[in-house]
């Protein structure tokens, strides 16, 4: 799986907003978001347009303006952010996994693609911004992280 720069930047920026919400500091400007995580400002503006359309963030204009989370951070999953900026979690040649079909020896391949999507959902939808920000990761994620080869390239 390839995690795009859009997803990486969006999650990092949303974590900054989650931290701001936790500290009660109010909206955060695009400039502050870009500076804190060294993200390209113009790219971040486009990402935040998607996040706003997905109703994950609110924007406020003016000198004290910026962006804030639209819902409590415990109610926004990493999967929500992923979908807002990159679309579905899993696609096969532009189709959803359950929409694929193959003949012959590959006839069971859709089952594998659906299982891959289900595992992505478990991890990404099961992890809130709050859990990621605080490091209080859900138990299924902690189990995956402690697998003997979890941190090894293959």
TrEMBL record:
* The protein's name: Transcriptional regulator, BadM/Rrf2 family
Q: Which domain of life is it from?
A: Bacteria
**Signal peptide from the UniProt entry:** none
User: What Gene3D superfamilies does the record tag this protein with?
Assistant: Winged helix-like DNA-binding domain superfamily/Winged helix DNA-binding domain (1.10.10.10)
PROSITE patterns per the UniProt record, alphabetical: HTH_RRF2_2 (PS51197)
The organism is Intrasporangium calvum (strain ATCC 23552 / DSM 43043 / JCM 3097 / NBRC 12989 / NCIMB 10167 / NRRL B-3866 / 7 KIP)
Asked if the keyword DNA-binding belongs to this entry, the reply reads: yes
Q: Which Pfam families match?
A: Rrf2
Q: Name one GO molecular function term.
A: DNA binding
Lineage here is:
Bacteria, Bacillati, Actinomycetota, Actinomycetes, Micrococcales
Give UniProt keywords alphabetically.
DNA-binding
Gene Ontology cellular-component annotations: cytosol
């Amino acid at each position: 799986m390839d995690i795009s720069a859009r997803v990486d930047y969006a999650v990092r920026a949303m974590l900054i907003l989650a931290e701001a919400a936790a500290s009660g500091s109010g909206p955060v400007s695009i400039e502050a978001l870009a500076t804190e995580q060294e993200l390209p400002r113009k790219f971040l503006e486009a990402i935040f347009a998607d996040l706003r359309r997905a109703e994950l963030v609110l924007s406020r204009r003016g000198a004290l303006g910026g962006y804030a989370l639209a819902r409590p951070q415990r109610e926004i999953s990493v999967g929500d952010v992923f979908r807002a900026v990159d679309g579905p979690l899993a696609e096969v040649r532009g189709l959803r996994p359950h929409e694929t079909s193959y003949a012959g020896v590959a006839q069971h391949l859709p089952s594998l693609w659906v299982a891959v999507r289900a595992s992505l959902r478990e991890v990404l939808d099961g992890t809130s911004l709050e859990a990621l920000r605080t490091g209080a990761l859900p138990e299924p994620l902690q189990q995956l992280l402690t697998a003997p080869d979890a941190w090894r390239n293959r």
